[in-house]
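assembly run, all chains below
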Amino acid sequence: MSVATHETPVTAGATPRPKKKRGPDRRPGLSRSLPYLLLAPAVLLELLIHIIPMLVGIWMSFVKLTKFFIANWSAAPWAGFDNYKVAVDINNAVGEGLLKSFGVTIIFSAVTLALSWALGMAAAVALQPAFKGRSIVRTLFLVPYALPAYAGILTWNFMLQRDTGAVNHVLVDNLGLTSDRPFWLIGGNALISLITVAVWKLWTFAFLTLMAGLQSIPNDVYEAASVDGAGLVRQWRHITLPSLRPVNLVLVLVLFLWTFSDFNTPYVLFGTAQPPAGDLITFHIYNASFLTWNFGSGAAMSVLLLIFLMIVTGAYLLVTGRRSRRA
Amino acid sequence: MRDTKGFKIYRAVVLAVLGLFVLVPLYVMVTSSMKPLSDVQGAFTWWPSNLTLDPFVDMWRTVPLARYFVNSTIVSVAATAFSVAIAILAAFAVSRFRFRGRTVFSTTVLSTQMFPGVLFLLPLFLIFVNINNSTGVQLVGTRLGLIITYLTFSLPFSIWMLAGYFDSIPRELDEAALVDGCGPMGALWRVVLPAARPGVIAVAIYSFMTAWGEVLFASVMTTEANRTLSVGLRQYSTQTNVYWNQIMAAALVVSIPVVIGFLLAQRHFVAGVTAGAVK
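ok done. output:
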């Protein structure tokens, strides 16, 4: 059990799994080259699709890579830090747009993360003790995660239509909350729509992960606690939450990174008519790059985004690491 | 223990609220796919004025859905097959051998999973365009480009998950196979892989879902010839009428294979995700 708490049963964990002590290989001659041969295809693809593009991306951010040079990149003139200067200069339209988009993304990411985690936790706890029909409910809750992202978002797009959608039908026709039908996909409400749709998809991932983590908590712990007179809330605070700590550490980080770079939700929900209130940063960079075909500027914005995410991730790992050492 | 009234009320409320939240969009998708066009053009109704399956027939004509379907299937199946095979080899190396660069490999590969896709999008597009210009290998606007890209997307997580699975299989088993005269590859094929079947299935489903649902790169790397479903479904809204009933029918049809696959294998999937915790 103590080993289990060090593991991170979450997808795409940032922490590599701890190594086990292994005996020496019996056949040193063969095993020296074999592991590298086994890794070769994976390494080649990672280089081609991930590593080299990232380095090229950094290079791109320092050249004037406008549409004239896309098919002939070696001729693109050097730009120094010009792309970055434009991107962070809040007095011009490009910099101002990027800053606004950054602000929108922070709100979106924070609210979506908090709601997804809370709903996932609420459901995982509710489904922890066995009851009749539990597996059906669990299966149902996993459907939004299993659905291709665009299929779910398209459905929400339909539901959020002003005149023909289900949301306004409920709010205006059934409940009579407002007399005029609000717009959900343009104007200020776009951010609310974006968060709702993102939470609809993401909370089930939090649920899946937390549910898996709860399985490692033995039932006797709860029984002992309730014999000692601990109520449900105290059991949750003093048993469930601490036991889930390693899961939560990775889950929160993954949810943050996913929500912060969410592209599918705004792209499928809004199409090309992006409302400023729903202008998430990945979507913003995408539009900035492909509307103007100025890849240099888009690359500079991407690198800034990467630096921001690395700083946040680093700080997060530092703070949480220090706290768990103290504990 | 937690049979208290308080907990039961809590559970009932949570299940009701979240059940509605999950179900309403699914309900809207299914019922709207069986509505006549006039129903989805007027005010929303909870039930079709007359139930029809026409949208499921018409949807193939409004846009070339069959072509998108074929493209998505070829791309996803190929990406999954290669991704799983490559991940098995890499995970076997990481799990069963100690070699220089092992930690560097694992950490680097996993961290690429953390970076936002838009970071790779522009450079990869540029690289593909220039590969085409210098070698004539067409990667933008072809299925090949998509296959290579998607299979790499699912690699990091697949390697990580499979390595966890392989770790949980006792090394004594493959040592027995080695003693019996199998090479290391024979041990992988005859001993490790059969024991890790649930993990392989889970990884395959994950890879397929990744390729089937990818939007960002598909929106840039596809032209009419290799367009996949994820961007193809948008074509319904570019028509003179927005055929919401057909969009919902198409969304339903493209979802069914992956949802069924995922739900059938959900136990393996959860087990794979938690492989680290249970071993």
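Chain B touches chain A through 115 residues (CB under 8 Å).

Residues 65-96 of chain B form the longest helix (32 residues).

not gonna interpret more than that til we talk
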